[in-house]
TrEMBL record:
<keyword id="KW-0813">Transport</keyword>
<comment type="similarity">
    <text>Belongs to the binding-protein-dependent transport system permease family.</text>
</comment>
<dbReference type="InterPro" id="IPR000515">
    <property type="entry name" value="MetI-like"/>
</dbReference>
<feature type="transmembrane region" description="Helical">
    <location>
        <begin position="12"/>
        <end position="33"/>
    </location>
</feature>
<dbReference type="GO" id="GO:0005886">
    <property type="term" value="C:plasma membrane"/>
</dbReference>
<feature type="transmembrane region" description="Helical">
    <location>
        <begin position="140"/>
        <end position="162"/>
    </location>
</feature>
<feature type="domain" description="ABC transmembrane type-1">
    <location>
        <begin position="72"/>
        <end position="262"/>
    </location>
</feature>
<dbReference type="InterPro" id="IPR035906">
    <property type="entry name" value="MetI-like_sf"/>
</dbReference>
<feature type="transmembrane region" description="Helical">
    <location>
        <begin position="76"/>
        <end position="99"/>
    </location>
</feature>
<feature type="transmembrane region" description="Helical">
    <location>
        <begin position="183"/>
        <end position="205"/>
    </location>
</feature>
<dbReference type="Pfam" id="PF00528">
    <property type="entry name" value="BPD_transp_1"/>
</dbReference>
<keyword id="KW-1133">Transmembrane helix</keyword>
<keyword id="KW-1003">Cell membrane</keyword>
<feature type="transmembrane region" description="Helical">
    <location>
        <begin position="241"/>
        <end position="261"/>
    </location>
</feature>
<keyword id="KW-0812">Transmembrane</keyword>
<feature type="transmembrane region" description="Helical">
    <location>
        <begin position="111"/>
        <end position="128"/>
    </location>
</feature>
<protein>
    <submittedName>
        <fullName>Carbohydrate ABC transporter permease</fullName>
    </submittedName>
</protein>
Amino acid sequence: MNTTRRMMAGKITRTVVVLALALICALPLWYILISSFKSSIDMIVNPMGWPKQWTFSNYADAFQDGTIIRSFFNTLIVTFFGVLIQVIIGSMAAFGVIYKKSAFTRITGSVLMIAFAIPLQATLLPLFKMEASFNLVDSLLGLIVLYAGSSVFCYFLIVGYMSSLPMELFEAAKIDGAGAGRIYMKIVLPLIRPILTTVVVFQTMSTWNDFLLPSVFLSSTSNETVVLQVYNAVQKFSTNWPLFMTITVIALVPVFVFFFFCQRWIVSGLVAGSVKG
């Protein structure tokens, strides 16, 4: 077999393997999507096939009382402001550590590293007490404050990328009379746009799909997020599984739309981060 044929055989093998893996990954999504258009009996008798009779009543039932729309609005508020605060704090902290190298910034970096290593589950009780002392439990503001703690993760992603920037840029800007704020706004932010895009994408999907913090810190129905709506669709003794699948599809749609429109920046951000980081 010559080299060309071996390369062609390898390419075909890789394509078949990738397609097989893609199909395996797509099966659960297919099951959820197609089940949202079935009745309970049809879902049991024919779990993976097309519906014998297409029904859209599950979607009508999901939107009937308006709670899913309110949950969407709550999740949108929490995700937008939570990620915005994370990116601002994380990028400014990384800039401070890189721009002003001193014992204070080294100690700050060490403290952030320790904070990053502590699992969230171990801090739930003190976080709950802290939020209760400020009357922030069971409020969207309290949830946004908690998500602001993920700024540590943003800091570590951004500081690695920012450390690869040439320090001569900062020195030249300082000679021209630019202060720290102007250097951060006019020079640093445009240069770290790829890693900022990556951070925004990761944190948006993580915050939107988060279950742990809303389930612990939210108790009012009016403050529930979309993920809690999916969880509440499962009843203790009997569950309307087609309705559960329908709410799951509704919760996944914004994530797919977000990924579809942002995939170009996601790929470019990941590639840039892998090169620079």
